[in-house]
Specification:
The protein is about 40% helix and about 20% strand. By secondary structure, the chain is of the alpha/beta class. It has a single domain, classed as P-loop containing nucleotide triphosphate hydrolases (Rossmann fold, 3-Layer(aba) Sandwich). The chain has a seven-stranded mixed beta sheet, sandwiched between helices. Strands 1-2 form a two-stranded antiparallel sheet.
Length: about 240
């Protein structure tokens, strides 16, 4: 018996032509805005998107629009698939409608000329009420996507940094949050699910560094675009891996 560990598996090389064909066959969904689509090339399966802004109303409108567009047919620039929505909220907040607003989803559906019941039947919802629950929900959602990966093409995580913002131990919370993103990114990349997260633009860690920099979500193919400047929305795009 050898005392040395087995050699790591060899890396599989991919030609540029193979990568091009893979990219060409990738499903793409509209964000609901031609201006945004022109910058990020739509919402693509297997990609990670982080939208952050101080304007929560605009972010919520974007989220509800994406949930509706996911159900739309591919010929209408949708995924023609189901979506999973996770919201991170304070359990004790008095306004429970902040968790998910059926009225706003219905309005978005009607604007897209879709019966709201069709959206509700194809939307799975979960809530996280604190930092540890957020991690448990991430594992649960990951298992759910693995079991129904052919039916799910969009995962939306709303208010991703709400527990980081309110935490007294930023380092510990950042570590947990990085673990949450790691779990979700790996699953979404493997199952070709688009991962869309929203965050408060004012969240910072110790030393004033942006929380998105501190988590070090990914070092590969990240691009930062300033979009919708009149609404101060920003997006970070990268591979979900």
């Amino acid at each position: 018996m050898s005392i040395f560990p087995s050699s790591p598996p060899s890396m599989q090389m991919q030609s540029a032509f193979e990568h091009f064909n893979e990219y060409r066959c990738m499903l793409e969904m509209t964000s609901g805005s031609a201006e945004l689509d022109s910058l990020i090339d739509g919402i693509q399966e297997g990609q990670f998107y982080l939208f952050y802004s101080a304007n929560r109303t605009v972010l919520e409108g974007l989220v509800y629009g994406l949930l509706v567009n996911c159900v739309r047919s591919t010929k209408d620039h949708g995924f023609e698939s189901r979506a999973v929505y996770v919201n991170n909220v304070d359990y004790y907040q008095p306004d429970k409608s902040a968790v998910l607003s059926p009225e706003k989803i219905a309005i978005s559906a009607k604007c897209a000329r879709i019966e709201p019941k069709i959206i509700f039947k194809n939307l799975f919802v979960q809530m996280a009420y604190n930092q540890q629950h957020q991690l448990a929900v991430a594992k649960q959602v990951s298992e759910f996507i693995e079991s129904k990966h052919e039916d799910v093409k969009l995962l939306v995580i709303n208010n991703l940094t709400t527990f980081f913002r309110d935490s007294k131990n930023k380092i510990s919370t950042a570590i947990t949050l990085k673990e949450v993103l790691g779990i979700l990114c790996k699953t979404c990349a493997r199952r070709k699910v688009a991962l869309v997260c929203t965050s408060d633009a004012n969240v910072t860690s110790k030393g004033g560094n942006s929380s998105t920099n501190r988590w070090n979500i990914s070092k590969t193919h990240f691009q930062c675009f300033r979009t919708f400047q009149r609404f101060s929305i920003f997006v970070i795009q990268g591979h979900a891996r």
